[in-house]
Model the fold of this input.
Amino acid sequence: MNADWSEFYPNTKKKMTHNMLVPLGKCFKPFAWVDASWKREKLDMRSKTGFVILLNSAPIKLFSHKQSLIETSAIGAEFVAAKEAVDYLQSLR
Done:
């Protein structure tokens, strides 16, 4: 998406180097599948987090572990799992 901001910033110029490399191929599209199993461990009542990170449909990271928090609902466990996946996706940037 290329936006034209020239009406808001009329005196600006794009800084382009003359020897800039041209990107080849497709852009990277990260995607994540996330799931949490609520109260999976019966002894300490902790949930398990699992996610798969895909980059252009190729898996690059498989992750699974017990959550450090004890959640009182399934939706809470899902939010914790989603937060961990988003944190990992942001670290890839």
